């Protein structure tokens, strides 16, 4: 059932201080759910993502024959199907989750039977041709609806391929690797820009063997997976909103514990450091191949400087770009974003919505096909924000609202639950007013 539209009033803050421990990383939770459901044995996870997207992945895998039980608020137990997924009697509902739809398609391509995947209105607008091409090259049959969901997969024995992704996408890479896991021979994915590597690390944690080079990853199939017990690190894409909020206020001091610090995801810390934020990383350790640690951030007394995000950096920061755009007016020299055309085909057109909402708050901004120029040294006022039912837009402009003059009303605030149901409560906890 769709959640009723909600509005959230965000009052300005005078500071951001405190400590947080965030729900589990969404990207890792998706992959753990998929692999655990496919593996042999019972996997147990603590601090599993509380977002609706990861719940969609669990529900789809349960419909395919895995057994899923929630053993506590953030604890999940998954009894795997030992590599044999059973076609469901009804379409698999991926909700709003592109990750679910694209990655699960790789697992299903080599399975016997017909599988239909559907999603909500937003997901049904997102491009799926990018998974059809490699999977059909491997021998699967995918039927799309004008390049979009609903999509139907007729599983078939596959053959290995060597594939170069035309658009950097960890989801497409994962889709191909999961199909390769079930396919005789060596399947290789090449990418011009290295994308997040949670799938490779998770596959190894579940017992798979992979080979990596600087620009490729290969898997020899078929391989079996075996259950694991794991704590999911805190989500750094969720942390981004709090880190950027703390970077706005010269008296700030925020600590985030047990945070995922995967090098392919933690580039935001480098960008905030380049802007002048003071960041310390403490207590780093490795858990199931993922780096986890504590991050402490405070803002520079003179305020943030300015920076440009472009090229490979844009691909690595794709989820964090909306909040960087939202805080850009508060910097001294502004933020320039380029090479981010992929933002136009996310849950919404995030470039257009970021520009629209910045202007609503009184900011000057120039919109480009692949990014934005947001000058610094600007003052924002409270406004009515159009989230476009996009969780990252709703949360990004809640951060901008903390530094604005007057109250801000976030329309479609319920969309935050897609990735981060606790967001507004935690923001109120650390925002001093």
Task: Please give a structural write-up.
The chain has 433 residues and is of the alpha/beta class. It folds into two domains: 7-24 and 233-432, UDP-n-acetylglucosamine1-carboxyvinyl-transferase, Chain (Alpha-beta prism); 26-230, Enolpyruvate transferase domain (UDP-n-acetylglucosamine1-carboxyvinyl-transferase, Chain, Alpha-beta prism), CATH 3.65.10.10. Helices cover 30% and strands 27% of the residues. The chain has 13 helices and 24 strands. The protein has helices at residues 26-38, 52-63, 98-109, 129-137, 170-181, 198-205, 236-246, 267-275, 312-316, 321-327, 350-360, 391-402, 423-430, and strands at residues 7-10, 15-21, 42-46, 67-72, 75-79, 92-93, 114-118, 141-145, 148-154, 162-164, 185-190, 210-212, 216-221, 229-231, 253-260, 278-287, 290-298, 306-309, 334-337, 366-368, 371-374, 384-386, 408-411, 431-432. The strands form six sheets. Strands 16-17-15-2-24 form a five-stranded mixed β-sheet. Strands 4-5-3-14 form a four-stranded mixed β-sheet, with helices on one face. It has a four-stranded mixed β-sheet with strand order 6-7-9-8. Helix 1 (26-38) packs parallel to helix 2 (52-63) and helix 1 (26-38) runs parallel beside helix 6. The longest helix is centred in the first third of the chain and has 13 residues, at 26-38. The two termini are 36 Å apart.
């Amino acid at each position: 059932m769709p959640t009723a539209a909600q509005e959230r009033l965000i009052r300005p803050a005078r500071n951001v201080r405190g400590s947080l421990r965030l729900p589990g990383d969404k990207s890792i939770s998706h992959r753990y759910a998929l692999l655990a459901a496919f593996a042999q044995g019972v996997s147990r996870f603590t601090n599993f993502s509380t977002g609706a997207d990861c719940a969609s992945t669990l529900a789809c895998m349960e419909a395919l024959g895995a057994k899923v039980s929630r053993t506590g608020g953030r604890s999940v137990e998954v009894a795997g199907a030992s590599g044999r997924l059973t076609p469901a009697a009804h379409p698999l509902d991926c909700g709003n989750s592109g990750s679910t739809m694209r990655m699960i398609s790789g697992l299903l391509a080599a399975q016997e039977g017909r599988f239909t995947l559907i999603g909500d209105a937003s997901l049904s607008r997102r491009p799926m041709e990018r998974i059809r091409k490699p999977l059909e090259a491997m021998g699967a049959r995918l039927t799309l609806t004008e390049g979009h969901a609903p999509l139907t997969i007729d599983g078939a024995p596959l053959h290995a391929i060597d594939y170069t992704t035309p658009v950097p996408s960890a989801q497409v890479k994962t889709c191909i690797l999961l199909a390769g896991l079930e396919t005789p021979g060596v399947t290789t994915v090449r990418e011009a820009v290295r994308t997040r590597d949670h799938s490779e690390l998770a596959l190894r944690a579940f017992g798979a063997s992979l080979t990596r080079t600087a620009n490729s990853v290969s898997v020899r199939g078929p391989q079996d997976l075996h259950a694991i017990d794991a704590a999911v690190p805190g989500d750094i894409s969720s942390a981004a909103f709090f880190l950027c909020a703390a970077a706005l206020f010269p008296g700030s001091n925020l600590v985030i514990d047990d945070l995922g610090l995967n090098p392919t995801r933690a580039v935001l810390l480098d960008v905030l450091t380049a802007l002048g934020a003071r960041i310390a990383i403490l207590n780093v350790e490795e858990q199931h191949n993922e780096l986890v640690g504590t991050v402490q951030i405070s803002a520079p007394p003179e305020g943030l400087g300015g920076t440009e995000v472009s090229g490979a950096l844009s691909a690595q920061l794709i989820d964090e770009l909306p909040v960087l755009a939202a805080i850009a007016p508060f910097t001294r020299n502004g933020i320039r974003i380029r090479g981010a055309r992929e933002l136009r085909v996310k849950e919404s057109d995030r470039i257009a919505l970021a520009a629209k909402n910045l202007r609503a708050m009184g900011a000057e901004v120039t919109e480009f096909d692949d990014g934005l120029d947001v000058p610094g040294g600007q003052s924002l006022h409270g406004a009515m924000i159009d989230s476009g039912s996009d969780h990252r837009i709703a949360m990004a402009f809640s951060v901008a609202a903390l530094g604005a003059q007057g109250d801000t009303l976030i329309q479609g605030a319920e969309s935050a639950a897609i990735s981060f149901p606790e967001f507004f409560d935690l923001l109120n906890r650390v925002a001093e007013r």
